[in-house]
TrEMBL record:
<dbReference type="GO" id="GO:0071006">
    <property type="term" value="C:U2-type catalytic step 1 spliceosome"/>
</dbReference>
<keyword id="KW-0479">Metal-binding</keyword>
<keyword id="KW-0508">mRNA splicing</keyword>
<feature type="binding site">
    <location>
        <position position="49"/>
    </location>
    <ligand>
        <name>Zn(2+)</name>
    </ligand>
</feature>
<feature type="binding site">
    <location>
        <position position="83"/>
    </location>
    <ligand>
        <name>Zn(2+)</name>
    </ligand>
</feature>
<dbReference type="GO" id="GO:0000349">
    <property type="term" value="P:generation of catalytic spliceosome for first transesterification step"/>
</dbReference>
<comment type="function">
    <text>Part of the spliceosome which catalyzes two sequential transesterification reactions, first the excision of the non-coding intron from pre-mRNA and then the ligation of the coding exons to form the mature mRNA. Plays a role in stabilizing the structure of the spliceosome catalytic core and docking of the branch helix into the active site, producing 5'-exon and lariat intron-3'-intermediates.</text>
</comment>
<keyword id="KW-0747">Spliceosome</keyword>
<keyword id="KW-0539">Nucleus</keyword>
<feature type="coiled-coil region">
    <location>
        <begin position="167"/>
        <end position="194"/>
    </location>
</feature>
<dbReference type="InterPro" id="IPR007590">
    <property type="entry name" value="Saf4/Yju2"/>
</dbReference>
<keyword id="KW-0175">Coiled coil</keyword>
<comment type="subunit">
    <text>Component of the spliceosome. Present in the activated B complex, the catalytically activated B* complex which catalyzes the branching, the catalytic step 1 C complex catalyzing the exon ligation, and the postcatalytic P complex containing the ligated exons (mRNA) and the excised lariat intron.</text>
</comment>
<feature type="region of interest" description="Disordered">
    <location>
        <begin position="256"/>
        <end position="332"/>
    </location>
</feature>
<dbReference type="GO" id="GO:0046872">
    <property type="term" value="F:metal ion binding"/>
</dbReference>
<comment type="similarity">
    <text>Belongs to the CWC16 family. YJU2 subfamily.</text>
</comment>
<feature type="binding site">
    <location>
        <position position="86"/>
    </location>
    <ligand>
        <name>Zn(2+)</name>
    </ligand>
</feature>
Length: 332
């Protein structure tokens, strides 16, 4: 097989390079024409068969560059395409003035709702545009002067100078802008509050419909929440202190009661032999068998003991006894 990219070419033996001449054809007359691949820049309908061709449809088109058609030194291009159904020729060109396209022949552009009302403005002349701008400026100036002087309680602007009138109008414009901004913020806040109330009412109604008891949670400020938390901590600390004091008092009462019982038993034992026929027998029993001594109840501490990190050395086991080895007794 031959190589795809060859470095040298084959020249036959009878080849004569002098026989090659430069061929000059006639220069192209008229606009320059190129074959390009493009997509339809807008939706259109063929006038011959009624076929709809939507935006983005690809076509093999002829691009024509007219020599004498320009707008402010911007070149205008014309494109020739064919209908996808009847092959009728459709011609459209660029419109640099309005940054758009214009259909010239063979099709009709579809209605675009977002471009309604612009057709008249596109065809508006320079004189008509200037007249319209002057009318709008005069109307705005009249409205602003009447509104501004009405707000300030002044009469006409005949006695005031040009600079003073301009400053008054600027102040009025700023005041109107601030008032509009405040109204807009107020309306937004009211709308947000209404939405929150509606959503809360909807949740409550749904819960009542499902048979679930709902508790309305009122938003609490951070300061109020911090105050409540501190009150709860103080109440818990007071409860612990009172419980600890009560436990100590109960322990002291138990010790006092046990001490009183011991004193009463000893007094009866001492007074017993002097009364009754069997006093000698009770005295002997009291001498031989002392009264039982009750131990005080252990003190229950409510607090946990602190951890101890003291090192404890475990005693080693004597494994020699398990193996049957007897240690020799020291001689000394």
């Amino acid at each position: 097989m031959s190589e795809r990219k060859v470095l040298t070419k084959y020249y036959p033996p009878d080849w004569d390079p002098s026989l090659l001449g430069r061929s000059r054809g006639p220069k192209q007359v008229g606009p320059k024409v190129q074959t390009v691949r493009l997509m339809a820049p807008f939706s259109l309908r063929c006038t011959a068969c009624g076929e709809y061709m939507y935006r983005g449809r690809k076509f093999n088109a002829r691009k024509e560059t007219p020599v004498d058609e320009r707008y402010l030194s911007v070149q205008i291009y014309r494109f020739y395409i064919r209908c996808t159904r009847c092959s009728a020729e459709i011609v459209f060109r660029t419109d640099p003035r309005n940054q758009n396209y214009i259909v010239e022949k063979g099709a009709k552009r579809n209605t675009e709702p977002w471009r309604r009302g612009l057709e008249g403005e596109l065809e508006e002349s320079d004189e008509a545009r200037l007249d319209r701008i002057e009318r709008e400026m005069a109307a705005n100036a009249d409205d602003g002067s009447n509104k501004g002087y009405g707000m300030l309680g002044l009469g006409s602007n005949s006695g005031s100078g040009g600079a003073g009138g301009g400053s008054v109008e600027e102040r009025n414009a700023m005041a109107e802008l601030e008032a509009k901004t405040a109204d807009a913020k107020r309306e937004m806040a009211v709308a947000d509050a209404l939405d929150e109330i509606r959503s809360r009412n909807a949740r409550i109604e749904k819960a009542h419909r499902d048979g679930v008891e709902v508790e309305v949670v009122v938003p609490v400020a951070p300061e109020e929440e911090e105050r409540r938390r501190q009150e709860q901590e103080d109440a818990e600390a007071a409860r612990r202190a009172f419980a600890f004091q009560r436990s100590h008092e109960m322990l002291e009462e138990d010790v006092e009661v046990e001490g009183a019982g011991w004193v009463g038993s000893s007094s009866t034992a001492e007074a017993g032999p002097s009364s009754g026929p069997d006093s000698w027998r009770l005295a002997s029993i009291a001498e031989t068998k002392p009264a039982p001594i009750t131990k005080p109840a252990p003190v229950i501490s409510t607090d946990m003991p602190p951890p101890s990190f003291k090192r404890q050395v475990k005693k080693k086991k004597d494994h020699s006894a398990l193996l049957g080895i007897k240690k020799k007794q020291p001689l000394v």
